[in-house]
Amino acid sequence: MPASTRHHKALAAIVHCVGLLTALPVLPADTAADSSAARQLQPAAATTSDPNLPSAPPAVPTPTRVVKPAARPKVSVRVAPEQSPDPRYRIEVRNTGSTSVETTVRQELPQGVSASTVSDGGRVVSPDGSRSTEVTWRLRLPPGGTTTLGTTLTTASQQPVTAPACAFASDGRQPYDCASATWTAPGDSALNAQEPTGWRRQAPALLAAGTALLVLGLVALITWRRRRRPVAAALASDGPGTIYPRPATPRPPTRRRKPPVWLVVPVAATVLAGTVGAAAWSATRRVTAIDTDSQPTTGAWKGTGVQGVLGMPLREDAFEFTVYQMSCEPGRGARQCQATVGVRNLTREHQSWHGKLQRAYLANGNWVTTDESATRRANQGRDVFADPVAAGSRLVLPLVFTINGREVPQRLELRSGVFSAGVRVDVP
């Protein structure tokens, strides 16, 4: 057989075998059945292994959930004085939220004032590190509930008494809301009601100014009429007029008198020097008044400094500040003093304020500014100086001052801006 014929037959046999293999199934029938049964049982086995573990890792990672801080309870405080011979206050604490709230209510008493009657559940305590006395209650407010508290105070004089009250969280550090009221003796309130207010206080001055203007006008009218009489008499003495014009009589030229130069120049120089000197003196005085190293600062470019006590609303250029409570930790080393302050924006624009401008003055004349990190912790991680205060809004928040030594703050100075006069509050 020729070689070409043998090669063709071998190639044909190989092609025939390949076609036969492709026509037959690769695996036997029982093996395929076993594999399909295994595929059907595999998901069931996977689902019954561990319900807490996923069957397969997700293609896209699951986004982490942002943990939102708990909503602040909606607790409001209202304080009202009563008409009584002794200082008496009615405190209403209201929960406008939908859940129950546990709160601690504290009423600050001024120095020299003691509590004679306290409503049920109240205790009179003297906090450590403070020379004042306060009345505390621990309340559980139901949703939409209101609790009314009352105190009667004893004072040696009949002077007005201001006693603020605040509702705090259960730890006694985070304030929910604060309010204040001033009691006045019944006789003093009647005198204050009869005292003229507003423009009525200025009525005598306005009447005197009107009388002075009337007298000056009358004098000016009389002087004008006296000067006019000689001219009218001269015109009337010429007799009746004629139809022939009279020749004009030329008047001799008169030279207008002017002040001498040697008098004008010194007077002008004196006036200019006086004006410049007065402006420089005024500017220097105002800049010295707002010196940041003075104790305390008593002047500024905007507004007038105001001084008061705890619980008294004090207004400056942009804010109304009210210091409700001040307490310090006991000890001799570095300790923190926390002031509960109410801030109200009186303007129509957002106003920013800064922690370095809020000061606590000690008895030795030194002062410290707000400890911003401690203040942030006291406000549950919120930086109260980062965002401006909205127009017309009110905030009640704690400010923390870190003090070294046994000295306690005697006065707080709060202000909205570096050029604002600010307010000063005497703390017990």
Keywords:
single chain, 428 residues, alpha+beta, Immunoglobulin-like, 5-stranded antiparallel β-sheet, 28% helix, extended
Characterization of this structure:
By secondary structure, the protein is an alpha+beta fold. Among the domains are: about 110 residues, Sandwich (Immunoglobulin-like), CATH 2.60.40; about 120 residues, Immunoglobulin-like, CATH 2.60.40.1240. It is about 30% helix and about 30% strand. It is built from six helices and 20 strands. The strands form five sheets. The chain has a five-stranded antiparallel sheet with strand order 5-6-3-9-10, with no helix packed on it. The protein has a five-stranded mixed sheet with strand order 12-20-19-16-17, with no helix packed on it. The protein is extended and about 155 Å long. About 10% of the residues have low confidence.
CATH class of the domain at 306-426: Mainly Beta
- Find the count of extended strands (DSSP E, 2+ residues): 20
Number of helical regions: 6
Strand order of the largest sheet: 5-6-3-9-10
Major β-sheet, in short? Answer: 5 strands, antiparallel
CATH-defined topology of the domain at 306-426 = Immunoglobulin-like
| Low-pLDDT residue spans | 31-57, 59-67
- The sequence of SSEs as H and E is HHEEEEEEEEEEEHHHEEEEEEHEEE
Percent in strands: 25-35%
**Form type:** extended
- CATH architectural category of the domain at 306-426: Sandwich
Structural class: alpha+beta
